[in-house]
Write the structure tokens for this entry.
Amino acid sequence: MPIIEDKIIVADNLSISYDLHRERKKLIALQNISLEIKKGEFVVLVGPSGCGKTSFINAVSGLIPKSEGSVKVRGVEVTAPGPDRAMVFQDYALLPWRTVESNIRLPYELQNLGLSEEEKAVRVKKSLELVDLVGFEKSFPYELSGGMKQRVGIARALATNPDILLADEPFAAIDAMTREAMQAEMERIVMETGQTCVFITHSIDEAILLGDRVVVISYRPGKIKEIVDVDFPRPRMNNSEVKTSKKYAELRDHIWNLVKDEAMQTTRGE
């Protein structure tokens, strides 16, 4: 477990809904979510598709408004995006006409961070080093593998030196072997930077291997069904004793039973 100090994200009875104009009704994505996330913590959200996981991190990032309740970062209500929060997307979201370096520099064009060109260059270089892409600065996305594209997305998120890293199923689109490698990279990067991470996945194994806590979200409207503590020592990804332990199997079965009940509701359309 990391050294955890003060609360950095606090959601208090947070509810998020969307107006479905064509159907003339309101869709409640999240309902009465109360969750405290501490500085340096790695929190993973799991739950069936459509349970509001993405809505939660979008609310933390400031991309969507809340309907009820509140979500605060360091005690300040979130009303808009900010450089202290960065998002890693599932689909890479790279601009194909830009080089790796130019894609990483994009946040500097969208936000006025008050940085000199020298400081920007230093941050880009550090981000490239963190994701092991030094030497690929002038490459274009079409020249990269899926895993390398996702590394660029992570480097871009790191370029603003955010306190909070928000990741929406960032490894879902890559193959199994590359996914394991990227999980190890994500764990290493968060351990090295000390950032707070909120991570979405449908993989229970990924949740256990990466998270300090796993938050299981119920089917729509999404509510917190249970918060499961994970206290295996880090690093975990290359530690075979973790995956083969009885404790790991029991934890996996417990989370699976929680998620399975919710997944069945999606097939019934309830």
Remarks:
- The two ends are 38 Å apart (CA to CA).
- Residues 246-268 form the longest helix (23 residues).
- The beta strands are 7-20, 25-38, 42-46, 68-73, 76-77, 85-88, 164-168, 196-200, 213-217, 224-229.
- The mean pLDDT is 90.
